[in-house]
Amino acid sequence: MRSLLNFLERYSNLIIFLILEGIAIYFLSTRNYYHNARAVNSIRWLAYGFEERITNTRNYINLRDINANLAAENTALRNSINRLVRNNTSTFYSVSDTVYQQQYQYTTARLTSNSVNRQKNFFTINKGIRHGITNDMAIIGGGGIAGVVVGCSENFSVAMSLLNLDFRVSARIKSNGYFGSLSWDGRDYRTTILSDIPQHVTVNIGDTIETTGYSAIFPEGVTIGTVTGFEKPGSDFYIIYVQLVTDFRKLQFVDVVANKRKTELIELEEKIE
Amino acid sequence: MINSVIRYTVIFILLVLLQILLFNNIQFSGYVNPYVYIMFILLLPVEIPSWLLLILAFFTGMTIDIFSGTPGMHSSASVLAAFIRPSVLRSNSPRDGFEPGAQPSMLAYGFRWFLIYATLVVLVHHTALFYLEVFRLADFFRTLLRVLLSSVFTVTFVLIIEYYRKGR
pLDDT digits over A104-126, tens only? Predict the structure, then answer.
């Protein structure tokens, strides 16, 4: 008994150290984004107040840029409406076809916090369960893809940024349709890497890279970026450097995309397996 | 006693605010992320009981974790830094030992001593932090470069803050 007490006294610091490290590593290894979002919610009166203030100031300073982007987007949308309207006038009849329901639903959200300088970046948006956000919804912003929702609380959601070493998205070269896997290597916040494109495919600098829609998260054909360079390493596949269209440092407003047929798709795929 | 508790609380709040509001928003490049809040652990009195030091470090790391959304990362690195701090102080002690009630400050033990002490603790903290962040051994040397560059910046900022604190 005495030797046990002696032991405890002697190594008390080591024991406290190990206990505290254990708690920390436990938090680290569970990486529970849901709890993370809950924490954001519960300490909102403090942390969120600061973030909100910083974001508000930043938004105000960048109003000129935001307006310019909105104007550009309006023009693009107006052009596409024009194209569609012209197509439709040549038809004689109109059918309300239930097959062509809207598949993707968009809702706007604002970033309340963001980072680009870590290896595993996340950002928080100001919409949550109450606004119909659920896990695995796609986030599009700044003209390209931005991330995926990984945790929701009542009013907020945490999203894994494209600038995260754990982020993977299926992407293809727009001109020839060959697809591969796009991920970030943690170096430059403007550049990502597209891999798994076989070397017999012709890749040109300036080619557009877009999403494939194979994952049931991102809609098909959303721009990701342009090719700025490529390497041919020893293997059979290219390493293609893709410059993102989304500037994550300027990201303030994003669209959250809900895929209304996701359950159907996943159920079907599971049935086949 | 009460006086020093209040003083360290103020230092704690100032350093955490500085970290969250300023240094977390600084983005030089992907390689430089100064974590100046570690200075709180550096400044605690020499004679503080180790268990209290460990718990305070855990609490500090936890606070930063909550604000930057990285559960466990900073807590873990800070606790490690606090764990090695007594050994760093012992191996780096002045010739006639520390006086009772001494504080590890630049004013008391000089620039060179403080530089060595701060660099050692910051290096341990940053090494743990950056490798925990990546959590893989691929890109080992790139992470090492991030550790070194960030440590240089953190130590520089700590020295600047310590220099101005000296006047008071």
Answer: 888 888 888 787 878 888 888 88
- Worst-scoring range by mean pLDDT, A72-86, A92-106, B67-81? A92-106
Count of domains for chain B? 1
A116 touches B at CB < 8 Å: yes
Q: Which residues of B touch A40 (CB under 8 A)?
A: 69
- Inter-residue contact A168 to A212 (CB < 8 Å): no
Q: Which of B98, B137, B91 is nearest to B116 (CA)?
A: B91
CATH number, domain of B40, equals 1.10.1760
Q: What is the pLDDT of residues A179-194, one digit of tens each?
A: 999 999 888 888 999 9
User: pTM for the complete prediction?
Assistant: 0.76
Q: Strand locations in A127-266, DSSP E? A: 138-141, 144-152, 157-164, 169-173, 179-183, 191-195, 208-211, 223-231, 239-244, 253-259
> Domain range spanning residue B141?
2-166
**Does the structure show a pLDDT above 80 at B127?**
yes
Residue of B nearest to A43 (CA): B66
Mutation choice for B interface testing from A19, A21, A184 by most B CBs within 10 A: A21
Integer Cα distance of B42 and B104 in angstroms: 7
**Could you identify the residue written with the tokens 């009630």?**
B101
Tokens of B162: 């310590």
Which of B20, B55, B132 faces A28 most closely, judged by CB atoms?
B132
Contact: A124, B66; criterion CB under 8 Å: no
Q: Does residue A201 carry a pLDDT above 50?
A: yes
- The answer, yes or no, to whether residue A47 has pLDDT greater than 70, is no
What's the gap in Å between the CA of A265 and the closest CA on chain B? 33
The interface pTM score, or ipTM, of the predicted complex is 0.83
Which residues make Cβ contacts (< 8 Å) with residue B28, sequence separation at least 6?
A117, B153
The amino acid at residue B146 is R
- Measured in angstroms, the CA of A77 and the nearest CA of chain B are apart by 34
